[in-house]
Amino acid sequence: MDLGGLATANPVWVGSSELTMTREGLLACVDAGAGAVVAKSVNESAAARRQLDIAAYAFVGDDRRVRAPGAAKRGDGLLNRSGLAQAELDDWLDILAGAAEHGAARGCPVIGSITLGDAAAAARIGRAMSGVVPAVELNVGAPHGREARAVRRLTEADAVHDAVRTVRAAVGVPLFVKLPGQASDVVALARAARTAGADAVGLVGRYPGFLPDLDGGAVLSSWGAWGSPGCLPMSLYWVSKTRLALGPDVPLIGTNGARTAADVLRFLASGASAVEVVTALWIEGPGVLAELVAGVEAYLSGRDDFVGSALAGARDYAGIPPNPSPAWLPYLASSGRN
Ligand SMILES: Cc1cc2nc3c(=O)[nH]c(=O)nc-3n(C[C@H](O)[C@H](O)[C@H](O)COP(=O)(O)O)c2cc1C
């Protein structure tokens, strides 16, 4: 399949995280059957790199309690702090080049990633990456943006447009722009990214989060980035709205909340052409990719035009006919309050 000028093996991609921060990690994801692999983000800031020294990760069960180490389950949420890759740029480019070559031989593109700090610096890094990877992803929606000033979460269309235009001018390969989910109008951000030259738009980044530990204090002793299967419908809200507003010619890359093949399919039905998965791999390892890819391919076999198919049945409230009897009546009855 082609997505924004990039040929990929299948729609199940590995998103950027510490799992794709080393040559070994990148190769393991390629070899496990990903459609594409996004490397861990870098930027120009020493502070963003130092941030990795205080990284912490808490897997949280349905009861909002933190799991014991090693006991995480696929459906858990993840609250974490993290920073950016600590390699010097030249060393990082060497790692990317080797992984990209390995991926190319197996039909799996390895994509470079930049989390926005300063736009001019991102442009310089993007230009350098263009020489070694077949595509670059620019994340302008870092959920740690308020706590870690060295990474930014842009929530206004003008700011997205300016940053993307600056980086676009320097990047000589397809440029994908990953947006935050927490902004008043993510569709406007997607339109701004596209107008400024993004070849595809990533929707949506994880959310800022906070979780008291009822034994005292707060989980991680700080705020963090939060993602869980419960975030899936929130991600799909913006994927579907963006697909409707921008149309099928703008490729969308879904992320945030896919843990199973069925979740990947829900992203596709909402309008995404590929899905970046991360937390499921943290919990079960890259081997989970084989299950996701097989499940998605089996379901899609013989089905055309699946991307965006759920939108045919979705209407604005004004287009929905009134119920013959109140829909809330059975709920009231079962609660014993009528
Ligand atoms: C520990 C961790 C580190 C991450 N680091 C980055 C990063 O450096 N750059 C980026 O664009 N996204 C980063 N992400 C976001 C993921 O790429 C992905 O979009 C997100 O985790 C949602 O997918 P999921 O629900 O499958 O986890 C990170 C996510 C996690 C959990």
UniProtKB/TrEMBL annotation:
<dbReference type="InterPro" id="IPR012135">
    <property type="entry name" value="Dihydroorotate_DH_1_2"/>
</dbReference>
<dbReference type="InterPro" id="IPR013785">
    <property type="entry name" value="Aldolase_TIM"/>
</dbReference>
<feature type="domain" description="Dihydroorotate dehydrogenase catalytic">
    <location>
        <begin position="69"/>
        <end position="299"/>
    </location>
</feature>
<comment type="function">
    <text>Involved in pyrimidine base degradation. Catalyzes physiologically the reduction of uracil to 5,6-dihydrouracil (DHU) by using NADH as a specific cosubstrate. It also catalyzes the reverse reaction and the reduction of thymine to 5,6-dihydrothymine (DHT).</text>
</comment>
<dbReference type="Pfam" id="PF01180">
    <property type="entry name" value="DHO_dh"/>
</dbReference>
<comment type="subunit">
    <text>Heterotetramer of 2 PreA and 2 PreT subunits.</text>
</comment>
<keyword id="KW-0288">FMN</keyword>
<keyword id="KW-0665">Pyrimidine biosynthesis</keyword>
<protein>
    <recommendedName>
        <fullName>dihydrouracil dehydrogenase (NAD(+))</fullName>
        <ecNumber>1.3.1.1</ecNumber>
    </recommendedName>
</protein>
<comment type="pathway">
    <text>Pyrimidine metabolism; UMP biosynthesis via de novo pathway.</text>
</comment>
<keyword id="KW-0285">Flavoprotein</keyword>
<keyword id="KW-0560">Oxidoreductase</keyword>
<dbReference type="InterPro" id="IPR005720">
    <property type="entry name" value="Dihydroorotate_DH_cat"/>
</dbReference>
